[in-house]
Write a structure and sequence with these properties.
It contains 2 helices and 14 strands, in the order ββββββαββββββββα. With about 180 residues, it is mainly β.
Amino acid sequence: MKTYLIPIKLKSIRKNPNAGSEQTIIQRTPTIRFSFNGLKLPECLKDNENCFITEKNMDIASKQVHIEGILKYPLHSDLLEQLWGVDIIISQENNSTIITHFPEPDYFYKYEIIEVKCNNCKQKFKSNEFQSLDNDNDDCFASTETGCPKCGEWDCCSVKYEKIEDALKIAEEEYDRLHK
């Protein structure tokens, strides 16, 4: 049985600036809170439209209301202009999530797309058309990344992906040859 070697695109190789990192910080949408004290909420703030009121209290003696809430993100500049000069406190919390994962690879790269042939149905197709298949069996799960897109055969041909170390050697040799 023929084994197809799928080479790395040499021009796609890039050094990963986060190589070896085992954590990624994901920035989420900021939470913009406001706190207002006054006779009534400014007309530009509309509950459930551009803000969510989370707390509302009234001081009966002074007839002042204390309102706290969250402004919808993103903030529009016209809303900020309307709030200019209003006695309101606005604060922003930048939320993030830290994801722990396996170490990031040293390089980013893509593979060439080559033509392969299924050993079962003998039809040719591109290597980026392989189907991911699984057996959906609760007792013994199995899967393949080299399913035939034409006939559905599992492991329809033998495939070997070039290792990044080998591609780097080829790239270095090509660089040396061109710069002599």
